[in-house]
Amino acid sequence: MLLGFESLVAVRFLREGRMQTLLIIVGVAAGVAVVAYISALISGLQRNTIEKTLGAQAHVTLSPLDERVLVAPAPPGAAVRKLEQTQARAQRPRSIDNWQRLLPELEALPQVAAVSPMVSAAGLAVRGEASRAIALMGVELERYDRIVQLRSKVVAGTARLGPGEGIVGRELAQDLGVQVGDRIGIVTDGVEDALRITALVDLGVRDLNRRTVIVPLRTAQSLVGLPGSATGLDLALVDIWAAQGLADDLAARWPYKAESWQQANAQLVSALNAQSVSTSVIRGVVMVVVVLGIASVLVVSVVQKQREIGILRAMGATRGQVLRVFLLQGVIVGAVGSALGVLLAIALIGLFTHFVRGSDGLPLFSITLEAGLALRIAALATVCGLLAAVAPARRAARLDPAQAIRL
Amino acid sequence: MSASTMTPQPPPLLELQAVCKRYNVGRPNETEVLHGVSFNIARGELVALIGPSGSGKSTLLNILGLLERMTSGSYRINGEEMVGTDDDALTLRRRTTLGFVFQFHHLLPAFTALENVTLPALMREGRVTARERERASAMLDAVGLGHAMHKRPGELSGGMQQRVAIARAMVLEPPMVLADEPTGNLDTASSDEVFALMRRMHAERSTSFLVVTHDPRLAARCDRVLELVDGRLVRDQASGPGIA
Questions:
Q1: Domain containing A35: what range?
Q2: Are residues A253 and A178 part of one domain?
Q3: Quick check: A313 and B124 CB within 8 A?
């Protein structure tokens, strides 16, 4: 049997030092539980934050390049003084050139899950005496639904965008005092139109709910005076973390401005990165503590077991066998501690989900310990156990058997 | 020339020549504890090694047991030189050729008597076969401990522990057993019992024994006595009355 002698002696040595073994296994379990719980918590928190942020946002947005003022060059050899102060040009709504041809090309990209044309502009929503500044979005409902899952965000009415129909944010409807079926006026750049509200949506962010008006693409084209246009193309990706790479590729390939969700939410991404780094630091420190804990217990064990090691060596155990006895002890402590630690983490997650709830009585966010993550952490702790045992095991293997027996 | 003179004589089981052992070599406190000790032990001999405390008996036993290296000299087992052999090879040689019995029994406390006796097989094969288990049980029966094989050392008397140690030393049937004051920690009755057991094992299995002892009664019951004084072998004679 592979390592039959080593594993039997390792297990017996651990069983013999009962309290010592129990304490270090509890220590490893606590360390693994902390690492697993924090990892699950932070990944749940980040996933929730990203989901909320991207709930009303495309992963990549294509739009026309910004218009820039070009400075006329001075005539060659002219004795002129160069004035370099230029004022940035105000950006007006413009269409993406050839967007109808671009659409199928984007849809054919393997990273892209959905593409939706959009006409966006600022405007006012008017109802009687009340008026509110709005962000007007003209979309094709079926396509846009695949970008932000709009239908899942409907809180009243039925999402429908026929001619003369619109969908508005929940808070905007409250501010204007309207509900599903009511009509509101829309004003953009001096053009007016009227809409019948078919649905109210909750986009997950109160400010967005207060500004959003979604209308059919054609309606928006008329309102901004760009018939047949699209001021932007929204892309949803299969993997949200591929957004930056794809945006860079698209910007390099075509003369459009490509912005990833990471660029649009730079502060959020920085915060998430800082959070990830902090989590990694905590994990690292905990693992170092686990390694030191196992190592210190095994060092003590080597001292306590000197005579037994001497007997085993006298009976014919090789240095390699003694080395493996102590390495196995580290692995066993790491593995058993990991298994208990993962169970403890699952219990902690259960407690968090049960007791920590928002003002609406629902859990703050979904937190789960994925099997893959649990296995990775358990494997890491087991490897840490092995590494922690290296120094004590080498010490045990180097013991002079004659001296050890005399002790 | 007769046929018997044509047959080459097998080498002695153990053969020591001019063995010196110095500690702290090259330091101001350098000490030589063995000064050119030479003797042979043949197969099937029961030899007592006596001498006052500090005479170098334990050091000599450690060298014979391949647990310690000599400073100079020659040590052959079955004609094979041990000087210059690497540590792993010495360990394997120890495993196959030598059995040990120590003064303080030195059983592994976490293992039962039977497990202690099966340890050498487990160490060698990585597992204990039914045959090995039977052999260990038979060995415990032979030392009169068939009834106590599932007890741990802490549950056995000193004499019983020493009998388990003898069973463990002999289970793989090594040609040589080295016993370091095996009765030194026992009362007279247990001491006699343990020595009688060793004699019986020696007689039944032709195993060679080198027994370090302070007890002249036991030395007198061996085939041959070696006496070490101040690191020198001062006597090497067949045993009999007058050993003291």
A1: 4-53+269-406
A2: yes
A3: no
Same domain, residue pair A225 and A283: no
Residues A184 and A234 in one domain: yes
**Which of B86, B149, B87 has the alpha carbon at shortest distance from B117?**
B149
Residue B17 lies in a domain: no
- Interacting residues of A361 by C-beta distance below 8 A, sequence separation 6+: none
**ipTM confidence:** 0.83
Q: Does B7 fall in a domain?
A: no
Q: Domain of B132: which CATH number?
A: 3.40.50.300
Nearest to B127 among A4, A308, A405 (CB): A4
| Domains in chain B, number | 1
Instruction: Answer whether A178's CB lies under 8 Å from A125's CB.
Output: no
Nearest to A261 by CA among A148, A142, A172: A148
CA torsion, ordered A4, A5, A10, A15, to nearest 10 deg: 90
- From first to last of the 407 residues of chain A, give the pLDDT tens digit: 567 899 999 999 999 888 999 999 999 999 999 999 999 988 888 888 888 777 778 999 999 887 777 766 767 776 766 666 777 776 677 788 888 898 999 999 999 999 999 999 899 999 988 889 999 999 999 999 999 889 999 999 999 999 999 999 999 999 999 999 999 999 987 788 899 999 999 988 888 899 999 999 999 998 888 888 899 999 999 998 899 999 999 999 988 899 999 998 888 889 988 988 998 999 899 989 888 988 888 888 888 888 889 889 888 899 999 999 999 999 999 999 999 999 999 999 998 888 887 777 777 777 888 899 899 999 999 999 999 999 999 999 988 888 877 75
Answer whether A317 touches B (CB < 8 Å): yes
pTM of the predicted protein model: 0.75
Which positions in chain A touch B109 (Cβ < 8 Å)?
Answer: 16, 308
